Amino acid sequence: MLAEKYYRPLLHFSPAFGWLNDPNGLVYKNGEYHLFYQYYPGDSVWGPMHWGHAVSHDLLNWTHLPIALAPDALGMCFSGTALVDKGDKSGLFGGKDGLLAYYTIAAEKLPDDADFPQSQGMAYSADNGRHWTKYNGNPVIRNPGLQDFRDPKVFWYEPAGHWVMVVTQGQQIGIYRSNDAINWQFSSSFGEGQGAHDERAWECPDLFEIKIEGQEESRWILIVGVQRQAYTPGSGTQYFIGQFDGERFLNDNDPATVLWLDHGRDFYATQSWADIPESDGRRLAISWMSCWPYANHLPTQSWRSAMSIPHEFTLRLTSDGLRLHHAFVRELSAKYQHSQSEEAKTAIAGSELFQCKWQDALRLKLAITLEENSCLQLTPMPGIQLFITTSAGQLDLQCVRHGKSEDETYNQHFPHDYHLSLGSNRRINLDLLLDRSSVELLIDNGRYSITNLAFPETAPMHICRALVTAGKANADVEWHQFSQFPV
Q1: CB-based contacts of 208, cutoff 8 Å, min separation 6
Q2: Superfamily the domain 15-328 falls into
């Protein structure tokens, strides 16, 4: 394997040291994007959970701040949310705006416990997140007798004039409401018989309203993590499209319909930013770029795990119905160091369509047309290959990832080989973002998102190469190299 320094992402957020997992408390206030995250500073594997904290003005350059929340006598600080209390509805800020944070209090696991006893806590900050005070009446919601009761997401629901919390309750999502942000009442639950389940609890819910692109009508999106049996084996994120009245969520689709937010192996615990200004209007989100079966065994030592690049979500009408679409955050374009494009490149079986060298990070945009019974092999970096094939009028993507280290768990779970059907089109658009240890792919203007880690075993300088192995292919190619900047 390469030295650890070559795996430190250029574009993606990673901890200065220690362990990182779920993004928490994403909120915008006073010109700053706040990123809190599950953090263990004492080791590069999962441990007693803190809330790490960083801020950014552009979603790409991050300033690390001191730990926001740390374990106390009540327990560890698991995942949660942060938001602006506009107009001091909680009465905690002397009439001014302040920040509220909700997190899961995870008490110490005793020898006979099946899991951590979990309840919901609250903290608040009057100085834009630099200092936090835990509410002295914690927990604000006690455990109702559940093994899994965690990951609260809270927002203000204007039509009814109350706060809403969605929280994991085992295989379901509990919905609570509050008039003062402190005293909570149970409203309803969602999840039984809906979507994808495995033997473990759902995790990291998010609920937000989003307009249908080109229409005045909107829908509500409920995001839920599946721990072990997602689209590909391991952790993954699904979403539901429906209606919400402040107390109940109703799924627009058949309960058996499963919508995956990402079809790769490393896109989990997705959360969206609260309080983005109306003048911006974007629904911005970020995910933990890892997967639980091998997360503790990745080939870094002083630090472990990173976040995905921030995404912009839109809701669009497709032939399959309404579907979320992704775009890499537009701020990326300001970081281009060198750009190049080539039009109408054509290749036949056995010949190369294009290649480009890159070292730290590369964005590659392709418009590809494949003749029937053709195959394009795209190798963005050593250790990962994408095969795009046409057969019987259908387009198929195969993703193959290799990986080997001295860790047997990594060797067992990290390699993969999976397929994704892309429908009947023979012309597709690819937006490929390569960083030192990740490959993020958006297909058909963001209709499909595919996120995978990759840890090349040799050379910090790589070649991204496309080879036609059968039939004939044509492509317009555009690539952008990135300048060095701090992360």
Answers
A1: 155, 220, 221, 272, 283
A2: Glycosyl hydrolase domain; family 43 (2.115.10.20)
